[in-house]
């Protein structure tokens, strides 16, 4: 073969490789950041240059809608389907779990040969097979439950094992994401970085808090008398830290020569978690009004997406899966009908037919619907969002036919997505007190550790949770033999299990005998030694809200081993002997399949 022939072969090989090359994907998801929390949105107090750069170097989706709270949005991003279709009805107590027959965007990229990793807050199921590594991700590190009570030196979960870490939670999870990118730089990767901030508790690194604690807040909330200015300042400090970590990832992509062919996305999971500036929009987190469900959404892909472009058509979290699989030319996994649309023609600035659409937002029995120009709120009031973006004057009388048509569409959507009983909103008030009736799975050989936190259990008798918010709570007030706690579980694999309990106990009260039982099998042991550490004092920038637990260092008690049969039933933890005044506080029970 001549030298020219060799050169042509080499050129052709490079061309084929370039055609076959798949783009990397990095998805940043903020937790409880509002549309108005960023410099690119016009917030003069925000310091978010790296997040803003994604918009400047890529595409802004101007009217982008998520759900009013965390887990529903995350489920919709992962599946391209409305959360009501897949069993996600709440944010804790097991209600955040996606049904096991749902397929995720990570499933699709994993099947296509991508390395897949998630680093941060998952919030769509804590036990296998609801766990991230059973939903398409090769790696997981973070906290699979909802909001977390430790932001400094937190205890986090590394592929099913609790580990004590050092540093600030967002920095730590970003470190793991950077290591994942570095490790997989020679192959396509899908990196999901769901940040923990600016969700409360209000805890920012001192470096960032010092930049904001004395700053005036000139741009105020739509309801300024309800705004806590220190919470606003702390949110800005937490977002400044988050932005620094976005910058670290962008810098790593640049260092490795991956910027050009990496799709980078940034968005948030709901409206702001306190009353902050939203440019006059109505509502905040938990509301189905515009301010509760509008998020920033930025896409950057230098190789193909034009810089500085703005998509004006409405879009939502349900659109991520069809859009990402289309852009990367990755086949979907599964055949369930999607609610989302492929946005790639809009992102690529291609001429395309784009029929009018509806985007529905739902939470706690309330449903609103957004068209390109209007929003029908959960009370049936219609607003012209072009002329009245703050939803101040209903236009039902002026636009009677549109209001009537949208009300009918909401009723049909309720029936289709939430079930026939949900068609009547008066009968569809979601309750968030009882634990989800679906059992928590235990005992898969491919993932032998099953962590059952207090958040997934039911306190019986005088036992209570440490605070009202279950996600980062523990059981307290355990004093009598009548008190107990139960987890509704389904043991998948019969076999021998090691049992541990993470606990604290006043030193003088050590020595109670506790028993864990399931369908006739029992294991018991003594609560010893006493372990009564103080509550953490290094966590909070601002006083912790009463609904959130003050955390402490729990000790691990090895209870023993027990033979469990496959099947469903209550896993019961109770005391059979209490020599002192108190049994213990319980953070979690862990069952490890041994054989």
Please provide a written account of the structure.
It is a single chain. 21% of the residues lie in helices and 26% in strands. It is of the alpha+beta class and 595 residues long. The protein folds into three domains: 21-351, Alkaline Phosphatase, subunit A; 365-427, Arylsulfatase, C-terminal domain (2-Layer Sandwich); 440-593, Galactose-binding domain-like (Jelly Rolls). Helix 5 packs parallel to helix 7. The N and C termini lie far apart (60 Å).
Question: Could you give a quick summary of the protein structure above?
Answer:
The protein folds into 3 domains: 21-351, Alkaline Phosphatase, subunit A (3-Layer(aba) Sandwich); 365-427, Arylsulfatase, C-terminal domain, CATH 3.30.1120; 440-593, Galactose-binding domain-like (Jelly Rolls, Sandwich). 21% of the residues lie in helices and 26% in strands. It has helices spanning 3-20, 49-56, 70-79, 105-111, 169-183, 206-212, 229-255, 290-293, 320-327, 344-347, 400-418, and strands at residues 24-31, 59-61, 64-65, 115-121, 139-143, 155-158, 161-164, 189-198, 262-268, 294-295, 297-300, 309-311, 315-316, 359-363, 366-370, 374-376, 382-384, 440-442, 449-453, 458-460, 464-465, 475-476, 484-491, 495-504, 513-518, 521-526, 555-564, 567-577, 585-593.
